Amino acid sequence: MTGLPWDASYQDGPAPWDVGGPQPAVVRIAAEDGFAGAVLDVGCGSGENALYVASLGFSVLGVDVAETALAIGRENAVERGIEVEFAVADAFHLELLGRKFGTLLDCGMFHTCGSDERPGYVASLAAAIEPGGTLYVLCFSDIGPDTGPHPVGRDELVGVFEASAKWNVVAIEPDRVLTRFHGDDGAPAWFATVKRI
What we know:
InterPro entries: Methyltransf_25, SAM-dependent_MTases_sf, TPMT. GO terms for molecular function: S-adenosylmethionine-dependent methyltransferase activity. Keywords: Methyltransferase, S-adenosyl-L-methionine, Transferase. This is Class I SAM-dependent methyltransferase. The chain has 197 residues and is an alpha/beta fold. It has one domain (3-196): Vaccinia Virus protein VP39 (Rossmann fold, 3-Layer(aba) Sandwich). Helices cover 28% and strands 27% of the residues. The chain contains six helices and seven strands. It has helices at residues 4-8, 24-31, 48-55, 67-80, 118-127, 154-164, and strands spanning 39-42, 60-64, 85-88, 101-107, 129-140, 167-177, 187-196. The chain has a seven-stranded mixed beta sheet with strand order 3-2-1-4-5-7-6, sandwiched between helices. Strand 2 (60-64), helix 4 (67-80) and strand 3 form a beta-alpha-beta unit. Helix 5 (118-127) crosses helix 6 (154-164). The longest helix has 14 residues, at 67-80.
């Protein structure tokens, strides 16, 4: 995956999905003590979710292909006095990180993948998480208007994880994902909790 189209989204101001703070779902995960071990934020963008989780005392690595977004995240970390790591990485080759994490966070990455790309992405996620670790996915849903690049159906979300035989889907619930172009209520989303077998 190349970073050029994504990088351009950050060069003239905030990207449409950069809301200047963590997604409410991430705040909810933290409030429910859902993070454990080191945390990997996949497709972290400018790092607002990673910064929030790191501010709670977790070891966090945020990865993205957009170098401009990562530079913004690093600047924000310094300004806020938060210790967090950001690195350029391809979400389809997370095994190249050479590390495994207790928790993976995907807020807005899954729905950027076409249906033919999703099995490879799910396999990449499996390579980066410890056995028994938890993956949280927040993605645009197919309920309501077409709001994103590849809105996801509930059955499709369950199916791609079950087909890999490396995951157990614990829960999928309707949620909202905040963006800069959907108003205060955000867009229809799925929030999935998935365990690595």
